[in-house]
Amino acid sequence: MPGEATTASARRTELLEAAYRYALAHGLADLSLRPLAAAIGSSPRVLMFLFGNKDGLVRALLARARTDELAILDGLRRAGRGAPVGLAPAVERIWAWLAVEEHRPLLRLWAEAYARSLVEPGGAWAGFARATVDDWLGALADCQPPPERDGEDGATRRTLALAVLRGALLDLLATDDERRTTAAVRQQLALLHG
Q1: Does residue 161 contact residue 103 with C-beta atoms inside 8 Å?
Q2: Is 53 helix (H, G, I), strand (E, B) or coil?
Q3: Angle between helices 87-98 and 128-143 (to 10 degrees)
């Protein structure tokens, strides 16, 4: 029946959003279907029906997190419509967003998924780290003026910018020392301007 597919799809979306909120609060490392299902008002059987298995649910959660990540990058790209904003202003905008405390649950989930993708390259985590690097490098490239972006040095500069952002973010997540990590990012921005 046509209405059943729509209902299953709507229910899948509803449970995915609830599971995503749960994952933001609890992470994915020890994700167990029973506690998750109880917390979001479902059952393990329904989750298995809608997502196939636990790996299918994890893949759906990673895709959902990536949707938020891509929205951040799209916002950065839109800010640069017309003339590209430049690499240093892009890094400054990204760091300003990353440093906001309310974004830490998403960023912790990202860090967990990134690390798991490196140590468990198959299964649900496959390709997450690589995809996120490609996404961020693409967004940073879009912010560079064409002569800089397309020159020999352009890829190196955006790779360095991404490495600084990622390193500072991991340090911030580990220590909550926003002042020190922001100072480090600002020092790097001064070098990018130079």
Answers
A1: no
A2: coil
A3: 130
Share of the chain above pLDDT 90, in %: 61
Give the pair of three-digit tokens for residue 51: 């997502």
Whole-angstrom distance, CA of residue 92 vs CA of residue 70: 18
Q: What's at 78, amino acid-wise? A: R
Domain borders along the chain are 1-52, 59-193
**Sole residue written with tokens 């299902």:** 37
Is the CB of residue 110 less than 8 Å from the CB of residue 122? no
First to last CA, the chain: 64
Helices (H) and strands (E) in the chain, counts: 10, 0
- For 125-164, write each residue's pLDDT tens digit: 889 999 999 999 999 999 899 988 998 899 999 999 999 9
- pLDDT surpasses 70 at 79: no
Is 80 within 8 Å of 35 (Cβ atoms)? no
- Lookup: tokens for 184: 């480090």
